[in-house]
Amino acid sequence: MTERTRILVTGGAKGVGAAIVRAMAAGGHDVVFTYRSSADEARALAEDVAAANPGSTIEPRLLDLADKEAVEAFCGAIEGESFLGFVHNAGQSYDALAAMMAQDKAEAAMQVNFFAFTRLCKALMRPMLRARAGRIVAIGSVAAIQANAGNAAYAATKGALAAYARTLAMETAKRGVTVNVIAPGFVDTEMLAPYAPYRESMEKQIPAGRFCQPEEVAGLAAFLMTPPAAYVTGATIPIDGGLTAMLGIHR
């Protein structure tokens, strides 16, 4: 994609999502990003990114991906628009041992992480297929690649995401659409606050010796939108400092 295109980013108000919004705008794209509860942060981000990238259009839109009716309404609205890029960054964590898993919480995570992605893909697909150009990127997790106790439900949502993306990639490749999954390891954001007491010991066990930065995930997402990435599709790409290349990590 060489010309300016519109890209949709879910969960773009902070953390990895905000870094992705910045990277896409810096790459010359207009960006619509969703947020759930961080309205002030979303507005501030949009203003800051627009100021840093003159001529770009940065638009925040409220959307709770856990609300199926809201997702349907949102998809109905964007079906009349044209997006040639989509990054599904929004995610919901849920940690519990499989024997203790609460079904409603597991289903809520699956709705946000997986089913919302499939519905948004369906809404965005036709303009991409008609244009014979489109880039879809889902932010998965190394939890879907390497097992970790307490991650059963969350890993299942990200595993479903990767399986769906591979199939979608095969179905759309001849029409110029690429579909890939980025699988981060431990990214240095607010979501890792519960791991703070274990951070030093965890970093020692990661081959790279540190947590990933949001900008590194965003940089990979931005690359997947560029012309040199046109032949990359159906891939799950770890960005984990070598974590999945070893046996495991323990607190």
TrEMBL record:
Keywords: Oxidoreductase. Residues 5-185 form the Ketoreductase domain. InterPro entries: KR_dom, NAD(P)-bd_dom_sf, Sc_DH/Rdtase_CS, SDR, SDR_fam. One of its GO terms (molecular function) is oxidoreductase activity. One of its GO terms (biological process) is monocarboxylic acid metabolic process. Belongs to the short-chain dehydrogenases/reductases (SDR) family. This is Beta-ketoacyl-ACP reductase. The gene is fabG.
